[in-house]
Amino acid sequence: MDDLVATPKETKKAIEQGIRQALLELGSATKAEISGKLSISFPTISKFLARMEESGEIMTLGLGESSGGRRAIRYSYNPEYRLGLALFLEKEETQYMIFDSRGETKEKGRTSTSLTKDAGSLAEQAGKILSKYPNIGSIAIGVPGAVRLGRIVLIPDYPQLQNVDLKGDFEQRFGIPVVVENDMNAAVLGYSRIRFPVHEQRRQTLVYLYFGQNGPGAGMLINGEVVRGSTYFSGEVSFVPLHDDRNFGQAMFDVRGPGGIRHLSEATIDSVSRLVASLAAILNPHEIVFGEDEVTNRQLRRIALGSADYIPEAHLPKLSLSDRDDDYLTGLRELGLDLLMEGATINN
User: Fold this and answer.
1) Nearest to 186 by CA among 169, 208, 161
2) What is the rounded average pLDDT for all residues in the chain?
3) Is the fold of 83-186+327-342 the same as that of 196-323?
4) What average pLDDT does this structure show over 204-212?
5) CA-to-CA distance for 229 and 226, rounded, in angstroms?
6) Which of 71, 139, 195, 286 is at 20 to 30 A from 313, Cα to Cα?
7) What element of type H or E holds 188?
8) Is residue 239 within 8 Å of residue 252, measured between CB atoms?
9) Is a pLDDT exceeding 60 seen at residue 2?
10) What gap in Å lies between CA 289 and CA 72, rounded to an integer?
11) Domain range 2-77, its CATH number among 1.10.10.10, 1.10.260.40, 3.40.50.1980, 3.40.630.30
């Protein structure tokens, strides 16, 4: 395989990623089918498949049906070759999910580790999960704060995590590629992947609003792409100055009711309605989503009516409720799967 060794590293990664995606999409395929799908020569595909089979990343399924000539060997991807870990950090606990390369859940649970701890304590809890699943090949972490390239750049309620390079810290500790994302960016990504087929996701402009344990926040997709902004501050709607004397975060302060549903007064309904109208005027989204543990259907109807006081009703988006935790974990899973498909590695 001398010519394979000579292949540039980035080209190798692109070919391997293409083979992974093709086999997961098709279920199984022959060398000729993969070669045709990727527009890569048959000899090159043969060499890459041989190496990936030797490592256990792909498996042979025996001979396929004959089309008149010699029957060809069929290959499939081994979804257990590398697993992903999704962690989302909240005030009181950490939720996690283990998933395989098809995105299927292997384990889901909660731990007592919370955002009140430092990065070392968070890593210690992650290490316990990793010891149980030594073939984890990616980690996706969600935090309720602004994140720039894996570093937490704004998380006011947890000063011990302010400016912490969580991505760099975890990668150094575990030697596994890591992605760190804002909680609502992950949630809006997950919502899009759950609700829309692939061919429609690129057409969607969505906003996901959450009042949260740590203050309001939003995740935004424009034409299917997560919006982070020039300083990774997008979605920090707490700071939007909707009133003469208060921003949105101050207007929504301490309005949580029993059972997790907020007692939204007429004043807070008006504040949410103003924000919806503002988002409609600036982004003109197809849909604005709220967490179903925070807003009732009746409150949603009141918000819709209130928003129409500020902007023509024809331009208002659809208002929806969804399971925020499920959307959040799904978004983190998608980010982790991207790392698995890339075959990213860390050289410590």
Assistant:
1) 208
2) 89
3) yes
4) 92
5) 9
6) 195
7) helix 183-195
8) no
9) no
10) 49
11) 1.10.10.10
Sequence letter at residue 92 = E
Report whether 183 contacts 210 (CB < 8 A): yes
Per-residue pLDDT of 20-46, as tens digits, reads 999 999 999 999 999 999 999 999 999
Per CATH, which fold does 196-323 belong to?
Nucleotidyltransferase; domain 5 (3.30.420)
Cα separation, 164 vs 177, whole angstroms: 17
User: In the chain, what are the domain boundaries?
Assistant: 2-77, 83-186+327-342, 196-323
Listing DSSP states for 248-291 in one string gives: HHHHTTT-B-GGG-B---HHHHHHHHHHHHHHHHHH--SEEEEE
Note the Cα 251 to chain centre separation in Å: 29
Sign (positive or negative) of CA dihedral 279, 283, 287, 293:
negative
- Rounded to the nearest angstrom, the gap between the alpha carbon of residue 85 and the centroid of all alpha carbons in its chain is 12
Q: What's the predicted TM-score (pTM) here? A: 0.88
- With a pLDDT cut of 90, the percent of the chain lying above it is 71
